[in-house]
Amino acid sequence: MQAVDVRELVIATRAIMADTMAEASVIDTCQGIRAEISERLFQPFVTTKASGTGLGLSICREIVEAHHGQLSAAPNPSGGTVFRIMLPITREEDLGSGG
Asked: Phi and psi for 93 in degrees, rounded to 5?
């Protein structure tokens, strides 16, 4: 977001799909992700930065998927990127008396 004049970051959460899923979104107003990188964005060692390992999003996706969720990225219609994390909601009564 350093290369743009208007820097806006929105973080939001909501319950969806009849309250069975939770969605967390991170929306920025930067330049967005180049097409040649967007297809490989979640692969290890892919980075949009001049210096970096390119492991962050790959590790994030593995953690989210280990919790039966999904991590995705899409262009923000007003510029930038929308990252979404979808996770199943587990209620205390769903856990039973195991703990």
From this structure: -65, -25
What integer pLDDT is reported at residue 29 of this predicted model? 85
Residue 81 counted as domain residue: yes
3-state secondary structure of 32: coil
Q: How many domains does the chain divide into?
A: 1
Read off the pLDDT of each residue in 55-75 and give the average, rounded to a whole number: 93
In a domain, 34, yes or no: yes
- The answer for residues whose C-beta is within 8 angstroms of residue 67's C-beta and 6 or more apart is 87, 88
> Tell me, what CATH number does 56's domain have?
3.30.565.10
Separation of CA 33 from chain center: 13
Q: Exposed, middle or buried by CB within 10 Å (0-12, 13-18, 19+), for 34?
A: exposed
What pTM does this model have?
0.77
Can you give the residue range of the structural domain that contains 77? 9-90
